[in-house]
Specification:
The protein is mainly alpha-helical and 453 residues long. The chain is built from 22 helices and 6 strands. The strands form 2 sheets. It has a 3-stranded mixed beta sheet. Strands 4-5-6 form a 3-stranded mixed beta sheet. The longest helix is centred in the C-terminal third of the chain and has 31 residues.
């Protein structure tokens, strides 16, 4: 995994500095800054900018870092960025990528770009790419690299050392050499420590570790993290169905998988994808969240239907009692989506003083847009249900008000909590629920009191 940044300056300060330099069109200063950063840090900067600024920053990135930057970008950000670029730019950027990294992004690219990249590969590279893509998307086969050092068990350590000197280098994060037989069957691993400390005339078979395990290429990548944690591994051999060595997986790939899984669990709880783009346009973000709001509306209507079974008893107040939970529930789920994204942005150091206002405007606009859409839907349903236009209008207006309040709360609550030293991931949802419930009930019942009673 790439180091996030090469300087000691906090990443949020870099975001502010980049935003200012872009605003002032200081191209030379930006090029100099980006030349001193790791690709992962540049990708972080791109993700932390509103979409209109991303292509401008990309133009100034070092040519040799383009491929790694694309790999480090989230899926939605990468797709939006490549839509602004020419095919030739993408082909040039990906020319230096290894097979796992290329496999990770090529399926997300438009067909024309994918075909153009394939045409630049030689026969061996194309075969390796097709082999990687033949494995399921979330399997070890997609993560593994075929760059390994494999040796035989019947040779001496001196022979191994001569072989390594001729190679002049070994793959990164190599803590041991893979040992195979004549058919390529994985037998074990020769630790580098043993290679350097044992007598040169000893055979590999006598000093190799035969207890070290291998993993099948079809293993789910999330199971891989458990194996690395349990055995404290740096790398592990990957084998095919016949136990032949076909590659290896290293700890940096596992860390990426752990982060993706954590994002999936956090954002999945509110119906968002783990690659949700924090600064994507309103037109792209609103529909994705609208679907989850629709699901929540269906469950809220179900609860309202149960209450509605007591209509004969409640008489005149029944409509208010039945519909009241919908307002609070819709505000709660909308606020939770905003809250979760803001907490994630804070955890990844993507939110700074230069982008907070833009982010707040975006979240408020999404809330109002979805509020109007679902207010019309639920207002129409309420009218069909009770046949009272005033109640339908009051319900719709109260829903818009509560979604507006939920967006503001979802942005402000985690920012304020972080400022005063409280973990927003632990307490943010509790405060948000309280706010949306109070605003929801107050707006709905307050309007009803003014216009119905």
């Amino acid at each position: 995994m790439n180091q996030l940044q090469s300087s000691e300056k906090p990443i949020t300060e870099l975001i502010d500095e980049v935003a200012l330099l872009l605003e002032q069109d200081q191209r030379s200063a930006l090029e100099e800054m980006l030349a001193g950063l790791e690709p992962a840090a540049i990708a972080h900067l791109i993700e932390s900018l509103p979409e209109p600024l991303r292509a401008r920053l990309w133009e100034l990135t070092p040519d040799e870092a383009g491929g790694e930057i694309l790999v480090d970008l989230g899926g939605q950000v990468r797709l939006a960025l490549v839509e602004e670029l020419d095919v030739e730019e993408i082909v040039e950027a990906t020319s230096g990528l290894d097979t796992p990294d290329l496999a990770a992004i090529i399926e997300d690219l438009p067909d024309a770009m994918g075909d153009a990249i394939r045409e630049t590969l030689d026969v061996q590279e194309l075969q390796q790419l097709d082999t990687a893509l033949s494995f399921p998307e979330d399997s070890v086969g997609r993560l593994m690299t075929t760059e390994t050092v494999a040796i035989r068990a019947d040779i001496t350590l001196e022979t191994v050392l001569r072989y390594l000197r001729r190679r002049e280098s070994i793959p990164q994060r190599t803590d041991g050499l893979m040992v195979i037989d004549r058919e390529g069957i994985f037998l074990g691993e020769l630790p580098l420590s043993a290679l350097l400390t044992r007598q040169p005339e000893e055979l590999v078979a006598n000093v190799m570790d035969t207890e070290v395990r291998s993993i099948p290429a079809h293993l789910d990548e999330h199971e891989l993290a458990k194996i690395f944690k349990e055995q404290d591994l740096v790398s592990i051999a990957v084998v095919d169905e016949a136990s032949r060595l076909i590659g290896r997986v290293t700890i940096d790939d596992v860390i990426d998988t752990i982060q993706e899984e954590a994002d999936h669990q956090i954002l999945g709880n509110v119906g968002l994808d783990e690659e949700e783009d924090l600064f994507s346009p309103i037109s792209r973000s609103a529909p994705r969240r609208a679907f989850w709001l629709g699901i929540n509306l269906a469950t809220a209507l179900l609860a309202s239907f149960v209450i509605g079974l007591f209509e004969a008893t409640l008489q005149r107040v029944v409509a208010l009692a039945v519909l009241m939970p919908i307002v609070a529930s819709m505000g709660g789920i909308a606020g939770s989506q905003t809250l979760t994204l803001i907490i994630r942005g804070l955890a990844l150091n993507m939110i700074s003083s230069s982008n907070r206002r833009w982010l707040a405007y975006k979240e408020i606009a999404i809330a109002v847009l979805n509020g109007v859409i679902w207010a019309l839907v639920v207002g129409a349903l309420a009218y069909l249900w009770f046949g009272e236009l005033k109640i339908s209008v009051i319900l719709g207006v109260a829903m818009v008000i509560n979604l507006f309040a939920s967006a503001i709360s979802g942005v402000l609550i985690p920012l304020v909590m972080k400022r005063v030293g409280i973990d927003p991931a632990l307490a943010g949802s509790v405060v948000l629920t309280t706010v949306t419930d109070i605003v929801g009930f107050m707006s709905f019942l307050g309007l009803a009191t003014l216009f119905l009673i």
